[in-house]
Write a structure and sequence with these properties.
2 domains; Arc Repressor Mutant, subunit A; elongated; 197 residues; 55% helix; single chain
Length: 197
């Protein structure tokens, strides 16, 4: 195999061939099978050290130019796979290792889950009087608010940490708070046990 792509920032098992990077992008979009943000594709590939950033951007541009993928919006933020791209994915996906394919699909699923959680459970941050921040958490069931809670957080670093921890398990946090305000000790113990797992 000819290595014709820059390898800076790539872990062992990552892609060092421009054609393999293109096949991976087609494979990703084929499996997603709906418009997906260009930024998210690049993020997944970068976060998992699969391919060089510049090579990934170049591969996307080349795939668009060749008609294998296309932009789904006028702002050129969302990508979809074309019939030609599906053909590439179907015929060449086996050139990618099973481990790499599984890693990529797992990363896509985690990102989609996180984005759904963030959409259904918005967190807003505003400056508090006298300094610090008010962080408002909303927990919904996708249709209606189950809970809204505002908390004071002193620093922006702590705001980031609080948001990150909230999005790990908003449903479990809701269960702990509900159990606490209901005052059911068995329910509290069970909710805390779930939160730790």
């Amino acid at each position: 195999m000819d290595f014709d792509a820059f390898s800076g920032g790539i872990e062992p098992g990552g892609l060092r061939s421009k054609s393999d990077i293109g096949v991976l992008i087609c494979y990703m979009l084929h499996n997603i099978d709906s418009p997906f943000a260009k930024e998210d594709i690049v993020h997944i590939i970068q976060e998992n050290a699969i391919a060089n950033y510049f090579e990934t951007i170049s591969a996307i541009e080349e795939l668009v130019k060749c008609g294998n993928i296309e932009y789904a919006d006028e702002n050129e933020e969302m990508l979809v796979i074309t019939r030609n791209g599906r053909l590439i994915s179907s015929q060449l996906y086996t050139t990618l290792s099973v481990t790499l394919r599984q890693k990529t699909i797992g990363a896509i699923m985690r990102l989609v889950t996180r984005k759904r959680l963030e959409k259904e459970n918005p967190v807003t941050v505003s400056g508090a009087d006298g300094g610090g921040y008010n962080v408002n958490f909303r927990i919904t069931d996708g249709m209606r608010d189950l809970m809204s809670l505002t908390m004071f957080v002193p620093t922006i670093e702590e705001v980031k940490e609080v948001k990150k921890n909230f999005y790990r398990c908003p449903d479990k946090i809701y269960s702990v708070i509900l159990a606490s305000v209901v005052g059911n000790s068995e329910m509290i113990a069970e909710a805390l046990k779930d939160l730790r797992n």
